From TrEMBL:
Protein name stated in the entry: Naphthalene 1,2-dioxygenase/salicylate 5-hydroxylase systems, ferredoxin component
Named cofactor requirement(s): [2Fe-2S] cluster
Protein origin, superkingdom: Bacteria
Gene: nagAb
Pfam families for the chain: Rieske
Matching PROSITE patterns: RIESKE
Rieske domain segment(s): 7-103
Amino acid sequence: MEFDGWIEACSADDIALEDVIRFDYGNRSFAIYRTANNEYFATDGYCTHQKVHLEGGLVMGRLIECPKHNGRFDLSTGEAKRAPACTALRSYPVKVASGSVYLKLND
């Protein structure tokens, strides 16, 4: 469901603490994260190094580690934090309302 640019992606409970899930919308793929502190973030789904989806990655605090070559990104900004990842991921605003996670895809 879409409302004012916000896309309903999943139930908040679909993502375990310190985990990541894949969300596909149209022809795009995203990664949605939940930290140990119950914060939610979203970025483009594919690592900028070799286009591996981040859904199998490891969430550590506010970092996601790519499952293929262990590059790391900041969940809140998309900033590349460890080689071989050098290019940032695009990040998206996230809100949780009525038990659902929403992404804002329109700038």
